[in-house]
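Homework help board

Subject: predicted structure for assignment chain

Our instructor gave us this sequence and asked us to write out the predicted structure in token form, then describe one feature. I got the tokens but I'm not sure how to describe them. Can anyone check?
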Amino acid sequence: MQNAYASRHSDGPDWPRPPSCLMASQLKLPPNGARVAVAGLVILRQRPGTAKGVIFLTLEDETGVVNIIVWRKMYERFRRAVIAGRMLRVTGRIQNDGDVIHVIAEEIEDISPMLDLLLSPKPETLSPDLQTG
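My token output:
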């Protein structure tokens, strides 16, 4: 049976993916202002002194990067996930300004525990003497 957080990747085996998330390569599809969910590894956190408390996150998935804007109010609400999360799921509104696309965060979820699923061998990949059940 397939894990609830896994889906079939066209080029390979099952891999963890939060439900209902767009890949970075799909962010040009929704119209400006559409509510979307994205997920990826946190590769950059920026809090410029001139940004008046705004946090900029960059997430990376297997298709590219997603720029996230976290307003101060959202940062205060989701502080732990923003600071400590290695992999995040962000729900928010698309802001499409030509070639630059951002997601304005409304919800931020730390899904770092899903990284462990990437390392877990599937029973069918274990040698017969290691399989149980």
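Reply (TA_rk): Your tokens look well-formed. For the description, you could write something like this. The radius of gyration is 17 Å. That's the kind of observation they're looking for.
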